[in-house]
Design goal:
This protein is of the alpha+beta class. The chain contains four helices and five strands. Keywords: Transferase.
């Protein structure tokens, strides 16, 4: 089942995120929970999850960004694409990305952007099969 995150999904999402760049499981303190509440309350911040047998096994984030160009149509940004290593190769991340695309279409976005730090050919081919291309733009990052 693919859906948007709910308040009760904090633990499940954080367990999945441990596999994303070896993130440590965050301490469930006031600061972290304030971020969680902010994400849940933001109508432009969509955390999409795929759940199987009551466990969150895949996810991506889709943020809708208001915009003053392109006829004042917003754009979408995809981040934190992850599937539990035991569930990979089953189309779950693609289902999350398709759900994000549906949100972007409903929000009248003119484009969706996605960045990956992966250099693995299999990952790059996965994103291309999901409808993204690496030819139209050049990405630059300045880490803070």
């Amino acid at each position: 089942m693919v859906r948007e995150i709910a308040d009760a999904d904090f633990e499940g999402l954080m367990k999945l995120y441990v596999q994303l760049h070896d993130n440590p499981f965050p301490k469930k303190d006031e600061r972290v929970m304030a971020i969680w509440e902010r994400v849940l309350a933001d109508p432009d911040h969509h955390v999409i999850v795929c759940e199987e047998d009551g466990k969150i096994v895949s996810s991506c984030v889709c943020v809708i960004v208001p915009n003053l160009t392109h006829g004042q149509r917003p754009y979408a940004f995809i981040e934190n694409v992850i599937t539990d290593e035991k569930y990979r190769g089953r189309g779950l991340a693609t289902a999350c990305l398709d759900f994000a695309r549906d949100i972007a279409v409903c929000e009248n976005c003119y484009k969706i952007m996605l960045l990956t730090g992966s250099k693995k050919e299999s990952t790059l081919r996965f994103y291309e099969r999901a409808g993204y291309n690496k030819n139209d733009k050049t990405a630059f990052i300045s880490w803070l």
